[in-house]
Amino acid sequence: MPVDTLRWQHIEQHIHSFLKNYGYGEIRTPAFEETGLFIRGVGKDTDVVSKEMYSWVDQGNNNLTLKPELTAPVVRSFIQHKLGRLQPINRLYYIDALFRRERPQKGRQRQFHQFGVEAFGSEHPEMDVEVISIAYHIYKSFGLKELSVKINSIGSPEVRPTYLKELKSQLESHSEKLCKTCNHRLSTNALRVFDCKNSNCQLVLDEFAPVISDFLSDDDRIHFDMVLNLLSELKIPYTLDNKLVRGLDYYTRTTFEITSSALGSQDALCGGGRYDKLVEQLGGDSTPAVGFAAGMERLLIVLDDISEPIQQNCDIYMVILGEKALSKALIIANNLRVDLNLSVITESSRRSVKAQMKEANRQGARFAIILGENEIKNGLATIKNMNEGTQEEIELNKIIEYFKENRKR
Predict the structure, then answer these.
(1) pTM, rounded to two decimals
(2) How many CB atoms lie within 10 A of CB 106?
(3) Residues 213-272 pLDDT 10s
(4) One domain, residues 62 and 76
(5) Are residues 376 and 282 in the same domain?
(6) Which of 114, 202, 212, 404 has the fewest CB atoms in 10 Å of its CB?
(7) Total structural domains in the chain?
(8) Please, which residues bridge with residue 321 across strands?
(9) What's the CA gap between 367 and 92, in Å, rounded?
(10) pLDDT of 340-368, one tens digit each?
(11) What was the pLDDT predicted at 285?
(12) Which structural domain range is residue 386 located in?
């Protein structure tokens, strides 16, 4: 509804302005993609692909899916348009609608919206830190308090098999304590066990799961240590979370979430990480990359709790009395909009002066221009300052000049 879209527009405009300052350009991808893109990119054993996608076969026998996440479509576009050959580093961002067949609840609908960034071309820790810094500071700029970064490294793909073998070995000996879904994940993709929300499964992980940081290569550890050092230098608070693997298969090395303890148990605001193999996996040249995605609905809920409602106020309300004043009033209103970029609402119900002034107040107008048959005859209009309660008569041909001088009042 219009009262809600004012808040959406405010947030979107802030995101556009904020990310422009970091040198990121907006990318917009189609509402749907080939289903195979998400199977290859996100992972067939993830909840997103196995349970939540809206997919269909069209009249041309193409398998299509409404996009459930944005990284894979952005990577597909990056490859298709050969962006990596145009410049060494590509910084992209998006604000878009997504679709997942989840149980609707507060802050989570089956059509939902995300904003986020994807940075291509650098394998170095400073790129991770730039992305994390953007996520942290954009929430800070919205006025959110008690922010922190939960962070982990899941290592490079080369060390993953050794860890997965040990994880599977440890958990299989306690499989009777795991839920049915986790037992299935052990045989398909054991890393996905960490996504389980079952409290018993989490207890098993706490007690028996090996710590992934113990399996990192020397290069992985150097990379992660540098990320942490730079975060400390930037005074971005973080906590290590050994179970943070994120819910999608394409992540490598750094994974992170931005949280706020002011939100209670549902403290996660956004999440992301590095995905150095995804571009190559989807058919492009080997290109390191890192990014994050954040829920818009979640942000709106949080901002509703901490900020004042946003109201759409107009600059001028045209109070029109009689048909003879109608055409002149519409001409003046149009000139004020075009020449001075002012918001002007014209009366269209032919109500009484009292009713029109009441409407001007309801619309939050700063000024009311009262124009009737007598005013047209005398070549004057009555202009009322709604904030100060004062009014004066101004010649019709000097109204534009009057508001040039008083537009800030």
Answers:
(1) 0.84
(2) 9
(3) 888 999 999 999 999 999 999 999 999 998 887 656 688 899 999 988 766 656 789 999
(4) yes
(5) no
(6) 404
(7) 3
(8) 372
(9) 42
(10) 999 999 988 889 989 999 999 988 899 99
(11) 95
(12) 316-406
